[in-house]
Known about the structure:
mainly alpha
Amino acid sequence: MGQPEMQPEGPPQRGRDGEGGAAGTRPGDLTGRTFPLGDWALPAERLDELYRWVERGALDTAAWYLADRVWKRRGAVLLRGGAAVGAAAGAALPLLDLSGAVGGVAPWGYLALLWAVACVAGDRYFGVTSGWMRDVATAQAVQRRLQALQFDWASESVREVLGPADGTASEAAERCLLVLRRFSEDVTELVRAETADWMVCFRPGPGPLGPHAAAAADGPRPDGAG
Length: 226
């Protein structure tokens, strides 16, 4: 006896609070979510509810990183552009002053070089460009794993509906729960790894993370950080 078809139909549903979690909107903090409770007397409906809960969490996580990258991308473009302009001006102005084409501009060239160094230092200190790249990479990794989950879930549904039932209904339910659990752990590990990288960027010294910092890296970071 196998389980009925569990593959959700149609586009991903909105959350219970009505928020879509699409890219461009700012979801809430990456905190834990209440595990949905339900009646296992109807295992197919229960598994479908859990799938939607897991899928919604992954979509919200990807949307959080995509939204977080927006201001970092703008800041990175401004800082890197300012560094390029400052370096170019710092090289050109002293040459113009030396050649006599424009007099008295050499000090401004030195200020322009100082501005370029300040832009580069600010970018590295605040982790703007690196944070932007981490956000994009993490969002893409979550989306890739979500796509793999969707195909795995469809395969489980097709196997139960079209092929001969593989084991009992209890074994089929456990197999589906294992797929969801592995995916949730994979997404959690992606967030943990990105948070650890973010903490390393702001670490004051080259030594290893302390026990409190290492423990904090195991959980999601607050909104707006990274």
